């Protein structure tokens, strides 16, 4: 496998760079950075999160995540509420404005994904996503 050229890792990195650049460009129209979009997406799909949980999820320092969350809160896209279990923990939830902005961003991201994967049949895309998940699992055990 190591003799295959170009390497799979290289091909994945090129795809990631191209997708990321498009993501930056399209989200900029809404004044949103990719990490902000990902936070909005995760909070919308998986309920409330603390800043510490988000930092662990994104593999970034809690201070960096605090900056991301503060910028979203300043724009009134999210709100933080005290956890009923622990008063020092603040849970993040989307506001109505955050939900509206996320819907617009999702539409732009859907367009990018359709363009990137238009050559895939539905089953191929499902398998590709499954294989990427398995690769992540393999790295987690590394």
Structure commentary:
The chain has helices at residues 8-28, 34-46, 51-58, 62-74, 96-116, 122-140; strands at 49-50, 78-82, 90-94. With 142 residues, the chain is mainly α. It has one domain (8-140): Arc Repressor Mutant, subunit A (Orthogonal Bundle). The protein is globular and about 55 Å long. The model has no long low-confidence stretch (mean pLDDT 91).
Apparent shape: globular
Quickly count the domains. Answer: 1
CATH topology, by name, is: Arc Repressor Mutant, subunit A
The appropriate CATH architecture is Orthogonal Bundle
CATH homologous superfamily title? Winged helix-like DNA-binding domain superfamily/Winged helix DNA-binding domain
The end-to-end span amounts to 18 Å
- Per CATH, the class reads Mainly Alpha
| Unreliable parts | none
Rg, Cα atoms, Å: 18 Å
Q: What does the largest sheet look like?
A: 3 strands, antiparallel
Proportion of β residues? 5-15%
Oligomeric state of the chains present here = single chain
> What is the number of beta strands?
3
- Average pLDDT confidence is 91
Order of helices and strands: HHEHHEEHH
Number of helices in the DSSP assignment? 6
Sheet/helix structural class: mainly alpha
- The amount of helix comes to 55-70%
Spatial order of the strands forming the largest sheet: 1-3-2
């Amino acid at each position: 496998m190591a003799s295959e050229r170009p390497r799979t890792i290289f091909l994945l990195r090129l795809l990631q760079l191209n997708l990321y650049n498009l993501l930056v460009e399209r989200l900029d129209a809404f004044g949103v950075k990719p990490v902000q979009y990902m936070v909005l997406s995760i909070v919308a799909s998986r309920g409330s999160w603390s800043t510490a949980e988000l930092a662990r999820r994104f593999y970034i320092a809690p201070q960096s995540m605090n900056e991301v969350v503060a910028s979203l809160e300043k724009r009134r896209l999210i709100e933080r509420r005290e956890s009923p279990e622990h008063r020092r923990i603040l849970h993040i939830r989307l506001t109505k404005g955050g939900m509206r902005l996320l819907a617009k961003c999702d539409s732009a991201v859907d367009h990018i994904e359709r363009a990137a994967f238009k050559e895939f049949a539905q089953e191929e895309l499902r398998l590709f996503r499954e294989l990427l998940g398995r690769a992540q699992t393999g790295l987690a055990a590394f």
